[in-house]
Amino acid sequence: MAQTAAAPTTAAPALTPISLKAIAPWAAFFGILMLILLYFVGAEQGATALISGEGVHEWVHDGRHLLGFPCH
Predict the structure, then answer these.
(1) Neighbours of 64 (CB within 10 A)
(2) What CA–CA distance (Å, rounded) separates 20 from 27?
(3) The whole model's pTM is what?
(4) CB–CB of 34/46 below 8 Å?
């Protein structure tokens, strides 16, 4: 006599939406972080430089070319 086992049924977990109030601080943090990164990759040289020397320029040189910023 062949027995067939029924597959166990599992209910999908209920998804709760995340409120905008919970996301806003993280969005602001990452937005500011991206603006700082964009500044260092795109404008940290010459007259607007916050850090003197060529150290930052050399660290972000390839990223600068990848994003289309002129540097030399």
Answers:
(1) 20
(2) 10
(3) 0.58
(4) no
pLDDT digits (tens, 9 = 90+) for 26-72: 999 999 999 988 887 777 666 667 777 777 777 777 777 887 877 66
Q: What is the largest CA-CA distance in the chain?
A: 87
Amino acid at 50: L
**Residues listed for the chain:** 72
Token pair recorded at residue 31: 């937005």
- State the Cα–Cα distance between residues 2 and 23, nearest whole angstrom: 55
User: Is the Cβ–Cβ distance between 44 and 51 less than 8 Å?
Assistant: yes
SS (H, E, C) 22-48: HHHHHHHHHHHHHHHHHHHHHCCCHHH
